[in-house]
From TrEMBL:
PROSITE patterns: KILA_N (PS51301). Residues 4-138 form the KilA-N domain. InterPro entries: KilA/APSES_HTH, KilA_N. It comes from Pedobacter cryotolerans. It comes from the Bacteria. This is KilA-N domain-containing protein.
């Protein structure tokens, strides 16, 4: 779970990532209306029948475990003078995932961005526009940073590619072969790495993705590019050691699995995203 903060008209709005989705603090947004009792603002918003209908529709679209029967009973009661509904009650009764309650230092009520923008609109149309603007700026900044990281890793992979091809040239390419035969050996070794990491050859990827530009490596994640760079260096070393291709594939595949798991589980790396 990763946290970010954006400044919207002087208010600090917390954003957290849950299951690859952005959840924005309703508690922070509510301070625009009532700085002292923001939770009451959220409860008042949830009294409206239109709001309950919106929340229920969102859950029906995005949540297979949403309890429709319990939702119907709440919808029936919504709008009456005696009706009250808290985020916690909504979550417990319907098994909702669009709204969550967090405890601790950065606790409060958070909602999926679709719901948070709807809440912000109820608070103030102008505030909603500023919230969307700052949220998009955050996403643009994150995207630019990821693009820079990806470009760096792609460049590193290309540098190691030359180390890799030099090892192939010195150890695997016999003298006197044709240019076509030489090209086949280079491609064969490149696909060795593709199979070890992506579990498919470049040709297989192209056949599966006929509408995509570039190649299998252009579509790689940052983690995959890091591992690819390592595999190119390691394969060059294994070629120098005269290991046959089948043995090298086994070793490289095990290394790829281990390194990918390590990178994906590494919290420090995930914070960079």
């Amino acid at each position: 779970m990763k946290n970010n903060t954006i400044d919207v008209q002087g208010l600090q709005i917390s954003i957290t990532i849950i299951d690859n989705s952005d959840y924005i603090s309703l508690t922070d947004i509510a301070r625009n209306k009532n700085p002292n009792e923001p939770k009451d603002v959220v409860k008042n918003w949830m009294r409206s029948r239109n709001v309950i209908e919106f929340l229920g529709l969102w859950e029906q679209i995005n949540n297979q475990k949403f309890k429709g029967v319990e939702f119907d009973s709440l919808l029936f009661e919504a709008g009456s003078n005696s009706f009250t509904l808290s985020p916690t009650k909504w979550i417990e009764k319907t098994n909702a995932i669009g709204i969550i309650s967090k405890l601790g230092n950065k606790g409060g009520t958070y909602a999926h961005k679709d719901i948070a923008f709807e809440f912000a609109s109820w608070i103030s149309a102008g505030f909603k526009l500023f919230l969307i603007k700052e949220f998009q700026r955050l996403k643009d900044d994150e995207g630019n940073r990821l693009n820079l990281q990806w470009s760096f890793q792609r460049t590193l992979a290309k540098v190691n590619y030359h180390i890799h091809t030099d090892a192939i040239k010195l150890n695997l390419i016999p003298k006197g072969i044709t240019a076509e035969q030489r090209s086949f050996i280079y491609s064969n070794e490149a696909d060795l790495l593709n199979v070890a990491l992506f579990e498919k050859t470049a040709k297989q990827w192209r056949e599966e993705n006929p509408n995509k530009k570039g190649n299998i490596r252009d579509e790689a994640t940052i983690e995959q590019l890091v591992v690819l760079s390592n595999l190119e260096s390691i394969n060059a070393m294994l070629i120098d050691q005269k290991l046959i291709q089948a043995d090298r594939l086994d070793k490289l595949n095990q290394l790829a699995i281990t390194q990918m798991k390590s990178l994906i589980d590494n919290k420090s790396i995930q914070k960079l995203k």
